[in-house]
Amino acid sequence: MITTSDFNNYDNSSNYFFNFGPQHPSAHGVLRLILGLSGEYIQSVDTHIGLLHRGTEKLIEFKSYLQSLPYFDRLDYVSMMSQEHAFSISLESLGNINIPLRSKFIRVIFLELTRILNHLMSLTTHALDVGSLTPFLWAFEEREKIMEFYERVSGARMHAAYIRPGGISHDFPIGLLDDIFEFCKAFVSRINELEEILSLNRIWKQRLINVGIISRDFANSYGCTGILLRSTGYEWDLRKTNPYEIYNIINFKVPIGRYGDCYDRFILRIEEMRQSIHIILQCLSLIPSGPIRTDDIRFTILPNSKDISTRITMQLIIDHFKFYVDGFKLLPINSYTCVETPKGEFGVYLAISDIGCRAHRCKIRAPGYFHLQSLDNIVYGRLLSDLVTVLGSIDIVFGEIDR
User: C-alpha 378: how far from its chain's center?
Assistant: First the structure.
C-alpha cells in the first residue's frame, strides 16, 4: 500500500505518483492503479480492486441454490454460462448427481461458444486500447450472433441462467443446431481475418513482442492460470487434466506459448477459438437424443417427458411451488469444484449447513484476482504505455474479482 512516506522519497522533478483509473468503460469501476513513475517508467503499481463490492458470496449464504445461480451470470459479464456452469457442477458433485448425456453435450456447446464470446471481446478491446479500431467492429458482429443463440435457448442475451443443477433449463429449439453449424463454418474465416489483420501489423508486433514477459515459475507462484499460464509453455487446462462433462471423449488440442509475452497470449486466444470451433463441430455430430434433466427429485420436479399434461395434479403443483421457494436440500458436507473458464481456473467452494437448503459458506476463486495482483512485477521498469498492453493481454474485463 502506498503511504505518505513514499511520496517524500520521490524527487518531484522526475518521480511522481499517477492515478490509472477507475475510468475504463469495461472495468465498471472495479480497478484503480496508483502508479509510481520515474519519468515514463513504472517503478511500482499499487492495485486497488473491489470499488463496487456486491457482496455476492455473502448474499449466496442467504439464498437457496437456485436463487444463487443468477449471481454467477453477473460475475463475469462476458463469460456468463461458464460461471453458472461452475456453480451447477459444484452442486451436482455435492449431490452425487449424474446428468443426462444430451445435456452434457449441450452444455459443452455453449461453454465453447462462451469461450469464443469472451476471446472476441478480449482480443478486440486489447487492439482498441493499442490503437486498432477495425477488429473491434468486425468481432462485435460475430458476438451478436452468439448472443442470439443465448437468447433462443434462454430468452436473455447475457444473463441466461440456462445451465442449472441437474441439467439445463430447456432443450434446443428447432433449427438451432443447424444455425450453430452454419455459424461455425463461417466463423473459421473470421478468425483468419482477425489474425491476419493483427499478426502482420508492424505496430501491433512492436507493442506486444517481448512486453509483459512472465516465466513458468512466476506464473505458478502467483497462482496464474488459463492463457497466462499456458503462454509460458506449461500445458495446463482443466478440460484435459481434470476433465468434466464430455471433454474426455472430445478430441482437441491445448495450445501453449514459448516466451510468455503479450504476443504469445494474443496467438493463444486466436488458436483457442479455432479449437472451440473444432469441439463444437464434434458435439454437433455426436449429440444424442434423450432427456435434458436428471430424474432425481431433489433437482427437478416436472418429469422429462414432453407429454405431462395428463399427469399434472394439485400435489405436483404444490411440490413445484415449494421446490422454487424453499429449494432442494443437500447433505452438510464441503466441496471445491473448478472449471476452465475463458480467463482461467474458476473455482467454487461450498460448505453446506445442517439446514441443507443453502450454503453456510461460499468462496469464489476468480482467476482475474490472481492475474491482477502480479501486475507490479510484470510491468516494473516498463514504459507507461506498456501497462495498457499488459492489461489488455490479461483480459481487461475482470468483473469476477469484484464480488
Answer: 22
